[in-house]
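Run log // design_07
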């Protein structure tokens, strides 16, 4: 039984002298010799004063009624819209799947060349571009 009472006394001591509350520490804003800023928990010099911080609770908060109404109106407007991705292009009528694929591959090579590439990739990109263009000239209208 003595072990139980020691535990109860220790728990009571902790609960009385250390109540459950959010822990907050002072934060000091210090300018270092090289001009950089440092935020620390100890004062920079004797006349340093701690910064005043907001003790906001983090987490989700509900929208105000006006914000909720605005969100609902946006959702209604967007409900009827069906947009295609910006990169989507229409397939040419009567074009075979192979021709369409070669056009897409050629477009990807041209985009890569336009964005930039490493010197060691230049020969491979040029070869691919020439092959795709030759295929399109021979087999696609």
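design_07 sequence
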């Amino acid at each position: 039984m003595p072990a139980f009472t020691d535990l109860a006394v220790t728990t009571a001591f902790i609960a009385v002298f250390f109540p459950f509350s959010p822990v907050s520490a002072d934060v000091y804003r210090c300018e270092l010799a090289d001009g950089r800023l440092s935020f620390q928990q100890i004062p920079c010099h004797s006349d340093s004063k701690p910064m005043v911080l907001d003790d906001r609770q983090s987490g989700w908060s509900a929208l105000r009624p006006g914000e909720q109404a605005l969100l609902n109106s946006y959702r209604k407007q967007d409900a009827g819209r069906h947009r295609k991705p910006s990169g989507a292009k229409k397939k040419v009528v009567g074009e075979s799947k192979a021709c369409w694929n070669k056009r897409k591959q050629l477009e990807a090579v041209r985009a890569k060349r336009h964005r930039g590439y490493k010197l060691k990739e230049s020969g491979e990109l040029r070869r691919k571009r020439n092959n795709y263009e030759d295929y399109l000239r021979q087999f696609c209208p």
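Strands lie at 28-31, 37-40.
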